[in-house]
Each structure stands twice: as structure tokens, then as C-alpha cells.
Amino acid sequence: MTPIGIFDSGYGGLTVLSEIRALMPEYDYIYLGDNARAPYGNRSFERVYRFTLEAVQWFFRQECHLVILACNTASAKALRSIQQVNLPEIDPSRRVLGVIRPTAESVAALSKSNHIAVLGTEGTIRSRSYELEIGKLYPHITVTGEACPMWVPLVENREYDKAGADYFVRQHLERLFAKDPLIDTIILGCTHYPLLMNKINQYLPKNAEVISQGKYVAEALKDYLQRHPEIERNCTKNGTMHYFTTDSPEEFAQQASIFLNQQIKALQTNLE
Ligand code: DGL
Q1: Which atom of ligand 1 is nearest to the CA of 189?
Q2: Of 34, 65, 104, 245, which residue is the least packed, with the fewest Cβ within 10 Å?
Q3: Each residue's pLDDT tens digit, 140-185
Q4: Would the pTM count as exceeding 0.90?
Q5: What's the average model confidence in pLDDT over 58-80?
Q6: How many CB atoms lie within 10 A of CB 221?
Q7: Ligand 1 center from residue 199 Cα (angstroms)
């Protein structure tokens, strides 16, 4: 069996996994959350790169031929090096894809003002990956980033729907619109953030819209598999799903059920 690997530092990638499985339930999937070392958001480039590479090598040992980094921080800081330096050495026939490019490709059609915002972790915003990707594709679009370092802990600690979350959600939206009042489209450039959607919508100006990236990543993956039969052939189709975490599997199963709206079982791995 050669499942598709889906990776995140923790639970956030489950929001992407849900959309991918909704669109393509026929494939086999393995999800890995590196919960023991999450969050990645404020870690150095070197560390995120090393952790992500270790995860990718683990997926390859599980026979995955295709791995999706369902984590913006890992996509921003590790994807390019893995694709250009590591894959040619490890196995040029395997593929690792990220979430930033497919999201960047989809945004132009959504904005009328051509002023777009990206909310993300410190690492993603500082990398300027969204500005660079969107700038390459749509140079007429202005992109403003805002790092929201408290949002991942709010989600990971199940505070995303509590009163305390209001303060941090409002704070960052106010800062964002102070930087550029013409923004009409906001990308949730962190896979944890869709869980804060209700709060975000509450404090959003009327003419602005928030988009979460799972749907776009799923559509882009479907399109990719259609265009690359040599990769698609290697993805087995028994509709299985396995969850792994580097931390407590009981804790993972309990938390993941919130993201997925269903009970699951998880296994622990040390990435060996
Ligand atoms: N889910 C990750 C992302 O999309 C961030 C979580 C973290 O900081 O580890 O960027």
C-alpha cells in the first residue's frame, strides 16, 4: 500500500486533510502530527527544515510516494530545500508538495480591490512566501501580512471559541486594517486558523471576506494527480486512513475529534 502522506506540526493540517478526503475519498492516507515539537510557528528556519525533513523521511519509510506539507510554516521554510536538495538525493520519483502555491493561485479571482491579506504564524509571515508567490503570479495585487502568534496556542488549547480568543482575534484584525484599509480578501495562511472562523467573521469589516485554504489545496491536488499519472499510479485506493502523532496518541485522538467532528484512533511514532 502506498498512501498519500499529510503532514502538520500538530492538528492544523487536519483542516486540510478533511477537504482532501471529502474530494478524494478513494485514496489511502496517513496523517502525521509532530505534536511533541509543535508549534513550529516561531522556530528558526533551520529547525523547521530539519523537523520537516525528518517527517518526510518517515513518510517515505511508510511507503508514501507523495507527501503534502499541510502546514504553512513547513511549506514556507522547508519545502523548497526539500524539493531542490533532498528529493533528488533520496528518491527523485517521490514528490513533496505544499499549501502556499495552490492558495496563492486561487486568490486573484476572489479580490475586487486587489488588496489581499495573509494571516499566519511569525515564520510564515516573516518568510514573505505569500507575497512572493502572489507577486510572481499577479503583480498587480498588494499583499499585506499579519503574524498572529497567539492564535495557534488558542486552537491547540481549545480556547478558540472562548471569550479570551476575542481579544487576540480583534487585536490582529485591527492591526491588519490599520496597515491597509482596502483589503477585501483575507487568506488564513495557517491551517489551524479555520477553527477561529466564527470569531474572525465577528470582527471583520462587512466588505471583507476570509478564505480558508483547505478547499483550494484539495482542488489543486486533484488537478495535480490528473496531470501526473506517473504519480497518481503510485497512490493506492482502498479508502483507508491512519493517524500518527509524535506525542500522546490518546490526547491526539481526543483533540483531533474536534477538528474532524468524528472519533478517531491514533498511533504514536518517534519518527524512527
Ligand atoms: N499549522 C501550522 C501552519 O499552517 C502552524 C502551527 C505551528 O505553529 O506549528 O503554519
Answers
A1: 4
A2: 65
A3: 999 999 999 999 999 988 899 999 999 999 999 999 999 999 999 9
A4: yes
A5: 97
A6: 23
A7: 19
Residue 58 and residue 225: Cα distance in Å, rounded? Answer: 22
CA distance 163 to 159: 8
140 phi and psi angles, rounded to 5 deg: -80, -5
Pick the residue whose CA is nearest to atom 8 on ligand 1: 41
pLDDT given for residue 156 in this prediction: 83
Assess whether 235 carries a catalytic annotation: no
Burial 59-72 (b: 16+ CB within 10 A, else e): bbebebbbbbbbbb
Which pLDDT score, from 0 to 100, does residue 225 have?
98
Q: Domains of the chain, with CATH numbers?
A: 4-98+215-268 (3.40.50.1860), 101-213 (3.40.50.1860)
One-letter amino acid identity for 108? A
Q: What was the pLDDT predicted at 60?
A: 98
CA of 209 to the centre of ligand 1 (A): 22
Mutational pocket test of ligand 1: of 34, 103, 190, the residue with most ligand atoms within 8 Å of the beta carbon = 190
What CA–CA distance (Å, rounded) separates 38 from 126? 18
- Model confidence at 55: pLDDT above 90: yes
Q: Which of 180, 215, 182, 179 minimizes the C-alpha distance to 197?
A: 215
The CA 189 to ligand 1 mean position distance, Å, reads 9
Is 71 among the catalytic positions? Answer: yes
Between the alpha carbon of residue 188 and those of residues 16, 122, 213, 262, the distances in Å are 12, 13, 7, 23
Alpha-carbon torsion (261, 157, 188, 14), positive or negative: negative
Atom of ligand 1 nearest to the CA of 99: 4
